[in-house]
Structures are given as C-alpha cells and as structure tokens.
Amino acid sequence: MVFYRGVSLLSKLRSRAVQQTNLSNSVRWLQVQTSSGLDLRSELQELIPEQQDRLKKLKSEHGKVQLGNITVDMVLGGMRGMTGLLWETSLLDPDEGIRFRGLSIPECQKVLPAAKPGGEPLPEGLLWLLLTGKVPSKEQVDSLSQELRSRATVPDHVYKTIDALPVTAHPMTQFTTGVMALQVQSEFQKAYEKGIHKSKLWEPTYEDSMSLIAQVPLVAAYVYRRMYKNGNTIPKDDSLDYGANFAHMLGFSSSDMHELMKLYVTIHSDHEGGNVSAHTGHLVASALSDPYLSFAAALNGLAGPLHGLANQEVLLWIKSVVEECGENISKEQLNDYVWKTLKSGKVVPGFGHGVLRKTDPRYTCQREFALKHLPEDPLFQLVAKLYEVVPPILTELGKVKNPWPNVDAHSGVLLNYYGLTEARYYTVLFGVSRALGICSQLIWDRALGLPLERPKSVTMEWLENHCKKA
Ligand SMILES: CC(C)(COP(=O)(O)OP(=O)(O)OC[C@H]1O[C@@H](n2cnc3c(N)ncnc32)[C@H](O)[C@@H]1OP(=O)(O)O)[C@@H](O)C(=O)NCCC(=O)NCCS
Fold first, then answer.
1. How is the chain split among helix, strand and coil, in percent rounded to 5?
2. What is the pLDDT of residues 61-79, one digit of tens each?
3. Organism's domain of life (predicted)?
4. What is the DSSP string of 204-227?
5. Ligand 1 pocket member 105 (CB < 6 A)
6. Which of 79, 311, 400, 404 is the pocket-test mutation for ligand 1 (most atoms within 8 Å of CB)?
7. Is the Cβ–Cβ distance between 309 and 302 less than 8 Å?
C-alpha cells in the first residue's frame, strides 16, 4: 500500500509537471486557435476546404507509410493496439487519458466558458471545440445554446412510440427507441432521396446532428419521468443552458446538480474513435446511414455492461456491498467482497480499460468534484476506499492490463448524492453526452468524404495456413 501511494504521489508530481508544460503549450496554441464568427455552421464552412486539402495531401504524400505490424494476437484480441480509424475530435493517450482537440480535461475546465465564474465548462462550448478545434468565446457559446434551444422540439409521435413499450423496459431500450422515432425527420435521408452531391453531404449531416443533440435531452428526460415519476414531465426552461436544462427536465433544481450535469455531459462526450459506441456510430454512418440511424446503433453498443452500462453496474455493485456489509465497511471486508465478485466469474465494474493504463482523468475530475461538494458522503468514501483496495487485487490476478478505475467507477455516487438514485437510468445520461462527440465526428466524416468502412476478416484456417508459411 505504501508503495502504491508512493508511486501514485510520484506520478501525480510528474503528471503535474507534464500538465503545466502541456497547458502552456495549449495556451500558446489557443491564442492562435480562437474563432470570431458567432455562427457555428459558417465557421465549419470555412474550415472544411482547408481540412479536405490536408487529408488529400496526407494521402498523396504519405499514403504508403506503415503505422505498425498486425499480429495474430491483435486479430484474435478485438483489434487491440491496431491503428485503423481516423477520428479528429479527440485522442486518447494510454497514460495521460483523453484530450479533446488537444486539450486535457483540466485544460478544458480552465479555458472553456462556464455559466458562472469557476464553474464547470458549458457542454455547448465543448461541442464548439470538438467541431472546430477552436476554443469559443462566451458569445459564441451563447449563440450555440440559442441554436440548440431553437431546435429542441420533439414531435409527439416520438413520445407515443416510447409509450408503446412497457414502462418496465430498460431505459436504454426506451431511449434508443425514441432516437429511432426521431429519425423520421432526417434531413439527410430527404436530401439523399432527392439526389444530393456527395460534396454537400456534410450539410444535412450538420442539420440532423444539431437537431439530434438538441432533442436527446428531451427524449431522455421523458423516459426518466415516465419510468420513475408517474409520467409527470417537466417542460424545458429556455433560460437555462444545455446541461442545466437537462437536469431541470429530469426534476433537479439544485445549482450544484446543474453544475454536475455540465461536467458529466462534457467528460462523457468523446473518447476517441475505437470504443464500441463511437466506432459503431462511425461504422454505420460510413454506409451513409443518417445521423439518427448511426447514433441509435452507437447507443445499442453503449448499452453493453463492458461499455456504457458499467455506470449502472458500479452503483448496483456498491449498493450490494453496503447491503451485505453496511456503510462503515473495513478495507478487509471490502477486500473479501472484491474477491467474492471475482470468484463468481464477474468483473469488478468501474475498473480496467481497453486502452488506458493509468487512472482515468474522468474519474479524477469527478473525485475532485466530490471532494469539493460531498466529502462526507458515505458512498463517496466507499469509492475512495475501493481506489485503494481494488487495484492491488486486480494486479494480483496477473492478467488485467489496467487495474485502475475508469470513468464509471465514480459517476453513480455523485448522481445518487443529488437524488438521481435510479442506477438503471445512468447509461441514458452517458448516451445524451455521447451525442456531442459522435455527431461532431460524423459531420467531419462526411465533410472529409471518408469511405465505407470495410476491414478484411479471415478464418482460423486462413490464419493457421498463413502462420505455417510464415
Ligand atoms: C473495460 C474492459 C472491458 C476492458 O477489457 P480488456 O481490454 O479485455 O481488458 P484486459 O486486456 O485488461 O483484460 C484481460 C483480462 O482481465 C480481465 N479484467 C479486466 N478488467 C477487469 C475487471 N475490472 N475485473 C475483473 N477482471 C477484469 C478481463 O476480463 C480479461 O480476462 P479474460 O482473459 O479471462 O477474458 C475490462 O477492463 C472490464 O471488463 N472492466 C469492467 C467493466 C467496466 O468498468 N467497463 C467500463 C469501461 S470504461
């Protein structure tokens, strides 16, 4: 334990030094990369030809440069470590975590406009950053908030479609059904049917994406109120920003919960392109399926327990610990409970990652939020204890590549503290946030004219023969 604390202190100091260098680099970068117009669509219109030329040059000058060797392990291991996708909006470093257009989470918290001084970033600001690579001014964010407000009307048939499902259906099933029902308004589909030139495809993709981002909080809130509040829905409040309005429609009025929602939507939005939901959205859209179809497919991937559903699993697991051992659980009891989970053939939810090899910075910023707003909360203290107990056990297993906590290890206890206690609903919140990241990339997919995704697959026999020859 002493060793573990020592290592974590050293790595904190090191990463603080790295962060400071990176931050000053980013700030230098930001001085150049700020935008002036208030209209996001015009901003994109200007950027697209530049980026198309950049891609063209990359292809023509460096198309034959190798990026690495593919091994049999990679083919059999879910394509781990295989670089195979272009994803502009964010990049994941195994040790440092996510950067949104070059900015880490602490940097985003520092430079993106907030609703109040020192507050969490407005998700609309992150959306602007993801789409343009530029840090928006407060006026640009306000203008984007206004654009989203003007699109935030959900046709009645969407609610009726959700109502056709049993109220007990999983919230993700109800949410995805709502997104599919929104699809009937797709501008992309209409434009394609009319016969649009492929160089213009990004435009209806933009229209659909912005409407989708504007409307998913209403659909998500409807599902929540239908399932847990007897269908008493709360109308949107146009005086609020995107995150605060979402929390308001769910039924939460505290300003701390509104801040949490802004942080939540910001940090869950994007995690480069290879994760199940992002990759699925990108893959489906590569067939020129419209943003609604693509995003609904992404949500179905997010609903898996090894991916987005892990936030539900974490809170249920934590509550089962409390039920069995009480809130003042000792580290020894916790140790035994973790082993019991592992011995029953289950994973410890909220720990491990396909790419990350250190503590997820999305976990860290939620921990900081908890330290500021709910340091005495017993479930938060349990999460903090898990941070000490779980990694050594997973390391002892000898096969887990990353024993550290991920984003899902923390989100549930924060939501639970503010009264959003229905764990089965948590993945829907994740889904609302993911709309920002996935849709931003879909707009660029079409703007850059990225092709149909079609990797080669082989059989075991093919691999055996290939290996014999090699
Ligand atoms: C996220 C996750 C799916 C990544 O999987 P991965 O890339 O295959 O991870 P690894 O390469 O480290 O897996 C190697 C082995 O360790 C196991 N392992 C990884 N994380 C584990 C965990 N938290 N608890 C128990 N076992 C775990 C894997 O199941 C695998 O076992 P197997 O060889 O018997 O199949 C995995 O860490 C996991 O299941 N975590 C818990 C669920 C979760 O929190 N998901 C949200 C991710 S953001």
1. 65, 5, 30
2. 999 999 999 999 999 999 9
3. Eukaryota
4. HHHHHHHHHHHHHHHHHHHHHHHH
5. no
6. 400
7. yes
